[in-house]
Amino acid sequence: MWTRKATARPRYAASAQIWMSAIKRENGDHAGATSGLDQAVAALRRIYGESNPGAAEALFERGLVHASRGDAVAAEADLRTAADLWDGIGQPEHIAAIRARAHLAGVLGDMGRIDEALEAAGKATDALIVRATSAAHALARVSARFAAGSSPLAELVRKRQNLSERWREIDERLSISILQAAEWRDAR
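^ that's the sequence the OP posted. Answer follows.
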């Protein structure tokens, strides 16, 4: 029943193809997974165009298939393209872009291209930090609204904010101490 509904709309059919291909990859059917993902990539590019991130999910999954069957060159190309599609629309912190860069780092590391692997991992980490910081700021804004009141809930929110600020200060001092220790060690 769901396949009839999915095939009535090409975007849904492509999504179903991606999901089924992920199951095939997990069960070792690399040829079946690749075939389905090739179809999904082609369909999504027809729908959204060449540079739209609509195909990024399929490219990401196809990159995983290539990596699992040992084709690092093809895996690199698909994973890099998937991440670049998200970057192209100004969303490098999208979770799909982060996952693509993290897997790309693994593929590059397996290929012995350590500097590139570290760069990809660094980009994934930076994007993850941006994502986490954005969520923390949103929570802080909501908490500020609650803290403005005089209810018991407002008191708890203020205590949480104070503890959070104290934790941030301690974490910053610890980070500085670790960096200073590393600099001292490297200077010796």
